[in-house]
């Protein structure tokens, strides 16, 4: 199978000789950020990372709780908390647990979020706050020497987080929209609406302990929180439904998935949330059963964009399968690629470039890929190869240990294929004695 070059042959020189076409630099690798991820994609990335589901849930809850505790200690706004949790989830989806500590990843995510949200804090300030939260009886200052080595780790993880998010700093703040939705649906000055908003606000904080912020839009998250709060408190459910009916951007399927994700959190980790201690566990289970019954009656899937074939596939470690996902030489690459490819691309010849517009990145990849496409023509050629005769020294030994076959029982006419006994001659190809 001989390759046929897709490029035109090089022009001939004055002497009549042709020279090879000049090869330019490697075009590099393109990465485009993705604001949303489906449930099946998240599961595939966790499976490829080799994460244990129980350990992954504990690390996710502990990391988000650490971010919230440090944020409250430093008196940072809630938008910094939202951004830090989003970066933390994306970072953990692209790196194995064995490569980093989840506490370092959480603090590094908060460090980057402080810069993005213009609430700048030094790495030592964040480390000192985390230490003081854990040891309230023995507080230390940020300039303590014990934070020098951890500070370097935080700064080193900052680069990985920036590459993971693709330098795309867009995030969503559902708390801001939650205030407007509650006021519009329930009214402004009602005392009951204030208690309703307090419950919905805490539920919005608990929501960041799941993967909902990287799966759903802001309106889907807010409407799910408001409806689930109305179901938990047993009030204003009809007013919430009337408000949702007049919104074009409202997606019932996305809201159902978000509410079920929150109920999974409250049922499985009842004591690790803010709302879990306020309501009975049986109430969460009853609401979850009712929502699942509604899904079954409408024959709608539990998750959006679900693929059964992708769920049962074997795990593909990121170190061996993602190296060519952004390679322009591969014609059948999925687009856009996952952020984990940047780690493997860093060790290759090309340069990793981050493009914000996915359509522009796709067009550039298709244009560059034409110059790296190899076309082949397959043809068969029959070649006759002479078979050399075997060497006499390599003839097999018989039962008696002699070359040429049997020599026992006085049978001297049963020689080997090239043996000659008592003057008999054997001609190759004829197959008989004479």
From TrEMBL:
InterPro entries: Cyclin-like_sf (IPR036915), Cyclin/Ssn8 (IPR043198), Cyclin_N (IPR006671). It comes from the Eukaryota. Residues 52-169 form the Cyclin N-terminal domain. One of its GO terms (molecular function) is cyclin-dependent protein serine/threonine kinase regulator activity. Residues 319-332 have a biased composition (Low complexity). One of its GO terms (biological process) is regulation of transcription by RNA polymerase II. Keywords: Kinase, Transferase. SUPFAM superfamilies: Cyclin-like. Residues 1-32, 316-337, 378-434 are annotated as: Disordered. Pfam families: Cyclin_N. Residues 424-434 have a biased composition (Basic residues). Residues 405-414 have a biased composition (Basic and acidic residues). The keyword Kinase applies. PANTHER family: CYCLIN. This is RNA polymerase II holoenzyme cyclin-like subunit. It comes from Metarhizium brunneum.
């Amino acid at each position: 199978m001989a390759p046929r070059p897709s490029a035109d042959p090089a022009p001939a020189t004055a002497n009549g000789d042709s020279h090879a076409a000049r090869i330019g630099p490697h075009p590099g690798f393109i990465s485009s950020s993705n604001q949303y991820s489906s449930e099946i994609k998240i599961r595939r990335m966790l499976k490829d990372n080799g994460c244990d589901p129980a350990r992954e849930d504990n690390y996710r809850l502990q990391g988000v709780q650490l971010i919230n505790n440090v944020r409250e200690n430093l008196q940072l706004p809630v938008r910094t908390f939202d951004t830090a949790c989003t970066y933390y989830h994306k970072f953990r989806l692209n790196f194995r647990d064995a490569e980093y500590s989840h506490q370092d990843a959480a603090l590094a995510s908060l460090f980057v979020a402080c810069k993005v949200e213009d609430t700048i804090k030094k790495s030592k300030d964040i480390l000192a706050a985390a230490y003081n939260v854990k040891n309230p009886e023995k507080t230390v200052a940020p300039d303590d020497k014990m934070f020098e080595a951890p500070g370097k780790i935080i700064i080193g993880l900052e680069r990985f987080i920036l590459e993971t998010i693709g330098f795309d700093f867009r995030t969503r703040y559902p708390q801001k929209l939650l205030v407007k939705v509650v006021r519009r649906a329930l009214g402004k000055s009602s005392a009951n609406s204030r208690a309703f908003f307090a419950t919905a606000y805490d539920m919005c904080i608990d929501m960041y302990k799941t993967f909902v912020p990287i799966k759903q839009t802001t309106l889907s998250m807010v409407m799910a929180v408001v409806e689930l709060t109305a179901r938990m408190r047993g009030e204003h459910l009809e007013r919430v439904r009337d408000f949702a009916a007049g919104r074009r951007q409202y997606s019932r399927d996305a809201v159902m998935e978000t509410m079920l994700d929150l109920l999974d959190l409250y049922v499985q980790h009842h004591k690790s949330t803010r709302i879990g201690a306020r309501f009975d566990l049986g109430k969460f289970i009853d609401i979850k059963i009712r929502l699942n019954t509604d899904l079954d009656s409408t024959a709608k899937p539990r998750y959006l964009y679900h693929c059964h074939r992708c769920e049962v596939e074997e795990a593909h470690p990121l170190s061996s399968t993602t190296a060519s996902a952004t390679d322009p030489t591969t014609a059948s690459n999925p687009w856009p690629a996952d952020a984990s490819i940047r780690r493997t691309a860093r060790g290759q010849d090309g340069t990793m470039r981050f493009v914000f517009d996915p359509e522009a990145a796709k067009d550039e990849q298709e244009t560059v890929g034409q110059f790296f496409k190899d076309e082949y023509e397959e043809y068969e050629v029959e070649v006759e190869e002479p078979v050399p005769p075997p060497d006499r020294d390599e003839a097999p030994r018989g039962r008696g240990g002699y070359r040429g076959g049997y020599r026992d029982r006085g049978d001297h006419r049963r020689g080997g294929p090239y043996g000659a006994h008592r003057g008999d001659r054997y001609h190759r190809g004829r197959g008989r004695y004479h």
